[in-house]
Specification:
The protein is α/β, with parallel strands linked by helices. The chain is about 30% helix and about 20% strand. β16 and β17 form a beta hairpin. Bound molecules: NADP nicotinamide-adenine-dinucleotide phosphate.
Length: about 475
């Protein structure tokens, strides 16, 4: 790498502020929008992404039967058109570029890498074949290239989904969709075939606390009552005495009461919502055969109702278990991490060093900043807060201009042999996927292997000369 120019105070606003945004999900795009929307300061944003494709969980997390939620990608496309924006896909921080490289090459770095793993249950049998994390399953049916070889075998009559969040409902619903419901979506063909061929009849969603404490949102709960191929079942006894706090919990309870009053209509599958039970072990010889559940009661501790196990246990035969108990951030080398929260240690987005003082020029946004909560739009406010602090640091002289250029970044990546996918490479992938989808009445048919993605991106790069 060429020697770094000596940092100089930012005396002129004519030299653009150069920012690396690491991660291209909603938080990354909203951070880029806030940076590129500053009227006074010229800014250049390099969005660095380990995949050849942008949009994070909007492409690879949002359920394929929720196309409306995915339309937020149009806003991301407009952000990518702004002058000063570059997408550097297939570039992994920690492999192709170190944090130290970013600090040398950019005036500021914003980490928006999301929460890349799942929380575990820490119970025996959790790693048996047939016991999966929701993150793996979601990544698989959405075509994430790292998860296409996970050997999902849906040859089971009963699946148990642990957790009461929106991801648990996504998993339960996806398992319950009919081939006709899956056909117009961008679910991968392999997942459509596996779900359609599965003999699943019973999908049990298990909450450790009560119906009033469930964290799923009401429209998502209501959807379970509208499935073409599955009835929804709730035990009215488990709704008794529930004291909902807040509008969402009240609506959920009304919906659950309506579900509990329904008679089964004879649809091939049933989605069953159970409350006040926690898994204590997953049993099986070569694969999942049953799950052991313990009945809970609620107890108030430090102002929060927590689940406390009773002596009442049951064993439920099942061939599949999906744990959906929340995502968790993964530490990045060289970046201070708060283990308890699973986030980068930060104050409103300013990354804090070991001594608790802000680490100059290093910021974070989104789930890696606040934890895995909120909806897509929550990241707009979150990323804007981070960028406002970043710009305040610029204006108050805390971020001296480093005087580096985009060409230096390109030279370093070329030197390291990285097959960078630029935005034009992504639009080539996008076009190919949409064209394949059009013929079939689907939004797109995703390319799901690294080779196919990189080849599609490079085809255009070659055509463009
Ligand atoms: P979440 O909303 O935090 O739900 C996690 C669930 O796991 C909670 O019900 C929690 O119960 C339970 N849990 C945690 N530890 C457990 C344990 N050891 N045993 C049993 N249960 C346990 O997380 P999420 O579902 O992963 O969703 C992440 C975020 O993405 C949320 O903000 C969600 O709303 C959002 N999202 C939105 C959509 C949408 O808008 N359609 C779709 C997907 C995701 P306790 O409450 O008892 O801790």
């Amino acid at each position: 790498m060429p020697a770094a120019a000596a940092p100089a105070a930012r005396t002129s606003l004519s030299a653009p502020l150069r920012v690396a945004v690491v991660g291209s999900g909603p938080a990354g795009f909203y951070a880029a929008a806030a940076l590129l929307g500053d009227d006074e300061l010229p800014v250049e944003v390099d969005m660095i992404e380990r995949l050849p494709t942008p949009w994070g969980l909007v492409r690879l997390g949002v359920a394929p039967d929720h196309p409306k939620l995915k339309t937020v990608s149009r806003a991301f496309e407009r952000i990518a058109e702004r002058p000063g924006f570059r997408f550097l896909g297939n570039v992994e921080v920690g492999r192709d570029l170190a944090h130290e490289d970013l600090v040398e090459l950019y005036d500021a770095v914003v980490y928006a890498v999301g929460a890349q793993t799942d929380r575990r249950l820490e119970i025996p049998g959790e790693d048996l074949p047939g016991s999966w994390s929701a993150t793996e399953f979601v990544a698989w049916y959405n075509g994430h290239p790292d998860f296409q070889d996970v050997p999902f075998d849906l040859d089971a009559e009963r699946a148990v989904v642990i957790g009461n969040g929106n991801v648990a409902l996504d998993v339960a619903r996806m398992l319950a969709l009919t081939p006709e419901e899956l056909a117009p979506t961008d679910t991968t063909d392999r997942a459509i075939d596996a779900i359609s061929a599965s003999p699943l009849r019973d999908i049990v969603v298990v909450g450790r606390r009560g119906p009033a404490q469930a964290s799923f949102t009401n429209p998502e709960l209501q959807e379970l009552g509208e499935l073409a191929g599955a009835d929804v079942a709730v035990d009215p006894n488990e709704l008794e005495g529930a004291e909902p706090e807040g509008t969402n919990a009240e609506r959920n309870l009304n919906t659950l009461r309506e579900f509990a009053a329904r008679e089964p209509s004879g649809k091939p599958k049933t989605v069953r919502l159970r409350f006040f039970v926690s898994p204590t072990a997953i049993h099986g010889t070569d694969r999942v055969e049953a799950i052991e559940l313990v009945r809970n009661r609620l107890e108030e501790r430090d102002g929060r109702l927590v689940a406390v196990a009773t002596d009442e246990r049951e064993t439920l035969e099942c061939g599949l278990v999906f744990r959906s108990v929340g995502y968790r951030g993964v530490p990045l080398p060289g970046i201070p991490f708060d283990e308890a929260r699973g986030t980068i240690r930060n104050d409103r987005g300013r990354v804090l060093g070991e001594e608790g003082a802000p680490a100059a020029g290093v910021y974070c946004a989104g789930w890696i900043k606040r934890g895995p909560t909120g909806i897509i739009g929550t990241n707009k406010k979150d990323a804007t807060e981070t960028v406002e602090l970043l710009l305040e640091d610029v204006r108050e002289g805390r971020l001296p201009a480093k005087g580096r250029s985009a060409a230096e970044v390109d030279a370093l990546l070329a030197d390291r042999g990285v097959r960078v996918v630029l935005y034009t490479g992504w639009t080539a992938i996008d076009e190919r996927e949409r064209t394949a989808g059009e013929k079939l009445g689907r939004p797109r048919v995703k390319l799901v292997s690294w080779d196919d993605l990189l080849e599609a991106a490079e085809d255009v790069a070659a055509a463009a000369g």
